[in-house]
Write a structure and sequence with these properties.
The complex is a heterodimer of chains A (165) and B (437). Chain A is an alpha+beta fold. Chain A contains seven helices and four strands. Chain A starts with 9 loop residues before the first helix and ends with a helix. In chain B, strands 6-5-11-8-9 form a five-stranded mixed sheet, covered by helices on one side. The chains are: A alpha+beta (165), B alpha/beta (437).
Chain lengths: 165, 437
């Protein structure tokens, strides 16, 4: 494996080399690999599918079948910062729908939309496990909780600054 | 980021190390960490299981199955390797407790996994975290590395000659994977589709070997039980419901938060005292007692003890410990619809009653809520839900059907109020309701 050409960074490739050895079956590494690959490449591209299939030792269509099941895995590029607004029951009771509408208006995009500059994408998501601190949003993997439209604006401004745009 | 909220009635056992820096192994050891597993090595499998049975600990994932009994189902002899699988795919809406354990006390989970391994003769454990919990995966990975470095994991744990390996694992977003057999499928790198049972995981589980699957909170409790003794632990709760659990209070409350309270704690007190009551002087309408899949209780039905048996007797379930308070402004049809949207979205599609049932229920509830419903819809919703019960491969079908039946049964008048063609009388808006469709 070490000698093959890879589309991943040397660090990630090394991590994958190790990951497949941790389990009784190589295939067990499939879902974490897809997620880590997405973190680096931005989405699950055909090239990612091809290399992951080879590393795990299964067919590409088998990889596609698995990845289509999991909601965090995307086959199209999302924004640099993916704003995931929870509107499930606990967040709904504390303004989750309104927060989603606010983000949508502020960013000018709807569910699964991406801003033209590629900085933000928006997604309405199911429960993210922040029920006691609702309403809550996850931006990439970072949790933001007990939000109001005002505090949400500040957070979006900070991310925009981070993106340098 | 996730934190425990305090109250005079809180009994800190699982949470005893929260906020004390116990993510570092040295601090964890200083706080009596890894003492229980050393004791367990001395005790041997039968004595460990006996303590677990004496503790009356019941699974904290939702089903409430006695943990000691579950462990005792694993055959002593097995040709295939045995495994311990930690269910940290916390996804039941209203549940956010395992997050605190992983964030504040990851070593307690590792210690619990090793003890479970000693009890059933497993040499390997997997700690499966939901994909959204990436920051917790990093904490868990570091904790496992530390445990290896100290010789607490590996070929010769604590110098006992016993081998035990632990691996942390991430999912990638799927509620269904919290179901035990789908969890195993997912860990094997497949779609999270449930397996038919029997055989049960204790006999044929992960990679075909006997497998113990426990919720993260359950396993984090194990070292405390071994340390203090099963009988002592059982004294804290109620009959057949040992100890404490992390209750996640959410919704219309002055003080939502996660609180560790004894099993059997009064629900009314939980809402009005611990949770600080309903904001703005509004009235309580209903309470979801144990996560979104548990049938709703009206405000008049909440003077009950929060243990598996008492909540069961009241016609609902203690579930995963997610307590949601709904005030008088909530439209129950909208609430039922949002609940159903979730189950429709998460149904894996493997078996028909769940796949079709959740979809039709979502459609019917959407139409009814928007004011386009007809008389027959209300009975049809109940009929559809009742016909899903017990007819699916896994409990997701029941999880969608049970609360729906309760919504219709207990709040029928609100459903009827939506039939006048004028839309929702509560004027809630689901402007983006097409989303997630």
């Amino acid at each position: 494996m070490a000698t093959q050409t890879t589309i991943f960074s040397p660090e990630l490739a090394a991590r994958f080399d190790k990951l497949v050895t941790l389990y009784p079956l190589r295939r067990s590494a499939l879902i974490p690999m897809l997620l880590y690959a997405q973190d680096e490449i931005g989405y699950i591209s055909p090239e990612v599918i091809a290399e992951v299939a080879q590393r795990v030792g299964i067919q590409e269509n088998d990889v596609v079948s698995v990845l289509s099941y999991y909601s965090l895995l995307h086959t199209k590029p999302a924004g640099k910062f993916n704003v995931q607004v929870c509107t499930n029951i606990c967040c709904m009771l504390r303004g989750g729908n309104e927060l989603f509408a606010h983000c949508s208006k502020r960013l000018g995009i709807g569910h699964k939309g991406t801003t033209p500059d590629g900085v933000f994408s928006l997604e309405e998501v199911e429960c993210i496990g922040a029920c006691s601190w609702a309403p809550a949003v996850q931006i990439n993997y970072d949790f933001h909780e007990n939000l109001t439209p005002d505090s949400m604006d500040k957070i979006l401004d900070e991310y925009r600054e981070k993106a340098g745009k | 980021m996730a934190y425990l909220t305090t109250h005079p009635d809180v009994v800190p056992i699982i949470s005893s190390r929260f906020g004390k820096g116990a993510t570092s192994i040295d601090k964890y050891i200083e706080l009596d960490g890894y003492a229980a597993v050393r004791k367990a090595i001395e005790m041997g499998p039968e004595a460990i299981i006996a303590e677990m049975k004496a503790s009356n600990l019941r699974g904290r994932g939702g089903a409430g199955f006695p943990t000691g009994m579950k462990w005792s189902f694993v055959p002593k002899q097995s040709e295939k390797p045995k495994y311990i699988l930690v269910n940290g795919d916390e996804s039941e809406p209203a549940t956010c407790k395992d997050r605190l354990i992983f964030e504040h006390d990851p070593h307690s989970v590792i210690e619990g996994v090793i003890i479970a391994g000693l009890a059933v003769g497993a040499k390997m454990g997997f700690i499966y975290l939901r994909g959204e919990y990436r920051y917790l995966l990093k904490i868990m990975e570091k904790a496992i590395d530390e445990a290896y470095a100290k010789g607490f994991l590996g070929k010769n744990i604590f110098g006992s000659g016993i081998e035990f390996e632990a691996v942390s694992h991430t999912g990638a977003g799927a509620y269904e994977v919290g179901e035990e057999s789908a969890l195993m499928e997912s860990l094997e790198g497949k779609r999270g589709i449930p397996r038919i049972r029997p055989p049960f995981p204790a006999v044929v589980g992960l990679y075909g070997g006997p497998t113990v699957i426990n919720n993260a909170e359950t396993l984090a409790t194990v070292p405390h039980i071994i340390r203090m003794g099963g009988a002592e632990y059982a004294k804290i709760g109620t009959e057949r419901n040992g100890g404490t659990r992390l209750f996640c209070l959410s919704g219309h409350l002055e003080k939502p938060g996660v609180y560790e309270l004894p099993m059997g704690y009064n629900l009314k007190k939980m809402i009005y005292d611990v949770g600080g009551g309903i904001p703005g002087g509004r009235k309580l309408k209903a309470v979801v007692p144990g996560g979104s899949s548990t049938p709703i209780l009206t405000a008049d039905e909440i003077d009950i003890g929060m243990d598996f048996d008492q909540v069961g007797k009241a016609g609902s379930m203690l579930g995963s410990g997610g307590v949601v308070a709904l005030d008088e402004t909530v439209c129950m049809v909208e609430f039922a619809l949002r609940t159903m949207k979730f189950y429709q979205h998460e149904s894996c599609g493997w078996c028909i009653p769940c796949r079709e049932g959740t979809d039709w229920l979502k459609k019917s509830l959407t139409r009814l809520h928007a004011g386009g419903g007809v008389d027959k819809d209300i009975d049809n919703i109940r009929y559809l839900a009742e016909n899903m019960l017990g007819r699916t491969f896994c409990p997701l079908g029941d999880a969608a059907a049970m609360p729906t039946i309760a919504f219709v049964k207990k709040f029928r008048k609100e459903f009827e109020d939506h039939l006048d063609g004028k839309g929702c009388p509560y004027h809630h808006s689901l402007e983006h309701e097409a989303v997630l469709a």
